[in-house]
Amino acid sequence: MKMVISIREHCIDMNPRQLPAGEMAINEAVSTLHAGGVVAFPTETVYGLGADTLNDEALEKIYQLKGRPSNNPLIAHVCDIDGARKITTGWDDRCSLLAEAWWPGPLTLVLGRDPSVPDRASGGRPTLAVRSPEHPVARSLLTEFGGPISAPSANRSGGVSPTRSQHVMDDFQNQPEAHDLLVIDGGPCRVGIESTVLDMTVDPPRILRPGVLTAEILMPLIGQVELAAMQTVSASPGTMERHYAPQTPCLLVDEFQLTGHLQSHEQRCVVITSRDRAVDPPHVLISMPTDPSGYAVELYDALRRADMERADVLLIESTGEEDPNWIAIQDRLMRAAADRNS
Ligand code: TXA
Ligand code: MG
């Protein structure tokens, strides 16, 4: 009996540590990275779980913490073009045009992996994804650390990405390996969904994961850009279909289906919609902005809040059908609902 109690008490301390962004947090994070540890930090897209790109054992810790399959490659974060060129091969004029226009920012380029970078940094692939984040905390971390930082989104594998430090705290609470994880709080993320991943090793370049930087935005700079089809995204392993998924069974619905579900009274529903609607108790409504940028900023927080309602079903009203600016959001919504809509 005594032993059970002491294990319980121990578990209470098993939470990550949150520090406000500032010199103290950056100094501690830099020491942790140099010592081969992992830190959670804000970027403008989502929070990342970072480790030294050139330290194989440190990279392994990221996979363990996330429960991420070892063949799912990581993005290496760099300060600038020079930093990217040191760890990749095949950087060309198109890469320079893209980086000059959009770095720092939510654009990831897939290039060849330089032999100095461990296999594990890209899940064993010969390629490496690189991006220069814009968030000031991510930038000072990179500058003070002085080298590339590999970082996936700081959620448990397959779950919803974190856009606030509290989301990271929630995901890693009571996880023994995360008991000393440092989480730097830099406020809510400005973009809210992950970067656009653009494969520069193929011609024409191909978008493996849509983001706020759409093909329409990138094409005037470098010519034709292809969009990998939703169903054939295996070129980017982390984009397996069910992803960004809340715990609550989730359905993407049109107006007609939504009304049907709400009227059936068989299930308690949480509704996520950007339309002007009201729902009667016991159903719950989460209202979203009507523009794609605003919707993106709030999406992951809304999915996480929806889960907290412990409803029977989460109904997400489909949105913005033909507009390219909604593609990245539709991609995330389809994945949140994948294998339940099919
Ligand atoms: O906005 C973002 O990109 C965030 C922040 C933290 O920077 N990071 C992020 O990382 O979303 P992660 O690991 O959750 O997603 C990385 C995506 C995955 O879909 C992965 O398959 C793809 O990028 N990726 C990474 N390296 C790749 C490579 N060498 N070839 C193809 N796809 C790659
Ligand atoms: Mg992720």
Task: Tell me about this structure.
The protein has 342 residues and is α/β, with parallel strands linked by helices. The protein has two domains: 226 residues, DHBP synthase; 91 residues, Rossmann fold (3-Layer(aba) Sandwich). Helices cover 34% and strands 18% of the residues. The chain has eleven helices and 16 strands. Strands 1, 2, 3, 4, 5, 6, 7, 8, 9, 10, 11 and 12 form a twelve-stranded mixed β-sheet that branches. Strand 11, helix 8 and strand 12 form a beta-alpha-beta unit. The longest helix has 17 residues. The chain is globular. The termini are far apart. It binds threonylcarbamoyladenylate (TXA) and magnesium ion. Magnesium ion binds next to loops.
Briefly say what this structure is.
This protein has 342 residues and is α/β, with parallel strands linked by helices.
Give me the secondary-structure topology.
Blueprint (H helix, E strand, L loop, with lengths): L1 H11 L4 E4 L2 H12 L4 E3 L6 E5 L3 H11 L8 E3 L3 H7 E2 L3 H10 L4 E7 L13 E5 L4 H10 L3 E2 L14 H8 L9 E4 L10 E4 L6 E4 L5 H8 L3 E2 L22 E4 L1 H10 L4 E5 L10 E4 L4 H17 L4 E5 L9 H11 L5
Parallel strand pairs: 1-9, 2-9, 4-7, 6-10, 11-12, 13-16, 14-15, 14-16
Antiparallel strand pairs: 2-3, 3-8, 4-8, 5-6, 6-7, 10-11
Helix pairs in contact: 2-6
The structure holds threonylcarbamoyladenylate and magnesium ion.
Bound molecules: threonylcarbamoyladenylate, magnesium ion
**Could you report the average pLDDT, rounded to the nearest whole number?**
91
What would the principal axes of the Cα set say about the shape? globular
CATH class call of the largest domain: Alpha Beta
If you consult CATH, what is the topology of the largest domain?
DHBP synthase
| Structural class based on helices, strands and sheet pairing | alpha/beta
Distance between the termini: 48 Å
Strand content: 15-25%
Helicity, in percent? 25-40%
